[in-house]
Amino acid sequence: MMTQVAPAEESELSGLAETYVRSAPGAIRLAYLLTGDRALAEDLAQEAFVRFVARLHYIRDRHAVDAYLRRTIVNLSRNYFRRRAMERSFLERQAGHRPLEHVEPDVSTHQVMRAALLGLPVRQRAALVLRYYEDLPETQIADILRCRPSTVRSLVSRGLQALRQIPEVTR
């Protein structure tokens, strides 16, 4: 199904096509000179033109297309290199860290621990889970459980003591 395009919209669309055909080679050339990468240059020029079309209704001087595209391409290339520098510094920082060794999960221990936790009273279980699995401080746990921090310490202590009584958990 073809949609009808109003004559004013059709002339605007053909004007955009003409603008793109006229401005694209210069935009690509500028982007290439800034980046040194042909594919990236084409991407940046395309992105700059897309941003131009999105801002078309706000642009006062329609003859300033080339200036708008140049400024947008410079900003896009600057952002690209800034992002690459951040990624590179992150990777360099990560290179100093030793990779984590892959450890197969111990399913039987997991099941025993789960059963032991489920055997605890609800408040003790909640205190232990919030403390050791969610790594929350006592004050936050106290807010969640609506009790005092000293009560949280007591719940955690009694819960750990109960878990230590189960032989399969302590092995």
What does this structure look like?
This protein is mainly α. It is 75% helix and 0% strand. It is built from 8 helices and no strands. The chain has helices at residues 7-35, 38-54, 65-95, 107-118, 122-133, 138-145, 149-164, 167-170. The longest helix is centred in the middle third of the chain and has 31 residues, at 65-95. It is elongated. The model has no long low-confidence stretch (mean pLDDT 84).
Question: Would you summarize the structure shown here?
Answer:
The protein is mainly α and about 170 residues long. It has helices at about 5-35, 40-55, 65-95, 105-120, 120-135, 140-145, 150-165, 165-170.
SSE layout and pairing:
Blueprint: H1 7-35, H2 38-54, H3 65-95, H4 107-118, H5 122-133, H6 138-145, H7 149-164, H8 167-170
Q: Which labels suit this protein?
A:
single chain, 171 residues, mainly alpha, elongated
What is the element string, with H for helices and E for strands?
Answer: HHHHHHHH
Low-confidence stretches: none
Report mean pLDDT, rounded to a whole number: 84
What does the radius of gyration come to?
31 Å
